[in-house]
Amino acid sequence: MSKKIASQSIMALGVVGTALTISLSGCHPKTTNQLAQDTLSIKLDTTIYAIPEEAKSPHCDVKMQLVFINNEKDSAAINVNQAIRRTAFGPQYEKLSNRQFADSLAAFYAAGYNSDIKKLLNADLKNGMSAEEVPGWYNYEYDLSSTLALGMNDKIWNYSLTDFQYTGGAHPNTINTLINIVAGTGRVLTKKDVFTAEAEKAILPLVIDELVKEAKVRFETDTITCLDGLHEVGVFDFSDPFLPENFLLGKDKVTFYYNRYEIAGYAAGPFEVTLPLEKIKQYIKE
Description:
It is a single chain. The protein contains 7 helices and 10 strands. With 286 residues, it is an alpha+beta fold.
């Protein structure tokens, strides 16, 4: 999502049936806790047709339901919203209005879809393929959703983005992005910002223990008891164990998230590990 895109009309790219709604809740917040009750949800439902006005045309469905803080005058809210757009979607979206953001994101997907399939589709149609015969892999789908809530000490915003994509391959994929944002300043916290130098060595055994428990259930076996057992089912088989950059500092827990392909193959799926904050707080910087 960090690619820069040119400004363009989504209607010129074969986008029809665009439905954009912006839902609000709450009003005039003054404190961080009040901001947490005052959210804005951008909902977009768009279909991009490769062959305009053809009912059975290959198409790309784009859906999104993205949450932000609803206050364009509060500097803390502005900082957090800009941090979300910059980090989760790319710097080109940081300063855009809500409407501009939604339209630009739809245009990004429209341009990408047309770029991916146009030459192949035109060649197939030129060779006599009818719209009814076009393979299913010409149909793309994107579905984005997010959550936003206060986390540790009510001073950290927890942002979670779920990005489902099917782009004509053997199977779809879902990527989860977790972001910790300092309330007020909008500073995005990295693993290095949050955890002490000793944290990786101290926390990894706890994470591995939880992964072992999950692997036993997922792979329906009792033979997995340690890291070697995880290796045997393809977990951490191609890298040394590590704590992911994908984590959330919750109110009473810390969640670590490994996306598909990060520590195992596609079939193994993603892995989520949650540890009680009390258990590892000594490895979190003040």
